[in-house]
Amino acid sequence: MIGTLLTFFAVGLVTLIVAGIVLSIVGTVLSIGFGLATFLLFKVAPILFVGWVVLKVLDRGKSTDSLSAADRRWLEGE
User: Fold this and answer.
1) Which whole-number Å values give the CA distances from 68 to 71, 75, 76, in the listed order?
2) How far apart are CA 75 and CA 68, in angstroms?
3) Do residues 74 and 66 make contact, with C-beta atoms less than 8 angstroms apart?
4) Could you give the angle at the alpha carbon of 26 between the alpha carbons of 24 and 27, nearest 5°?
5) Who contacts 67 (Cβ-Cβ below 8 Å, separation ≥6)?
6) Using CA atoms in the order 25, 29, 30, 32, what is the torsion angle rounded to 10 degrees?
7) What is residue 64's three-state secondary structure?
8) pTM more than 0.85
């Protein structure tokens, strides 16, 4: 009877230790993931967005007939 209780205690203790380790690993992975997502969303994305807007503005200022004569010949297959 005492042996059975000690076995249940040991199994419960090992289960709590393993669950604590697994939860700490999951917490660390989630923390790293949220940190990376926050960095990309608030640091990298605005810079990319501003660059995209600048390129669109510069592209709008270009004329539609900007191909050189050599490019036209190449596209026509001559």
Assistant:
1) 5, 11, 12
2) 11
3) no
4) 60
5) 75
6) 140
7) coil
8) no
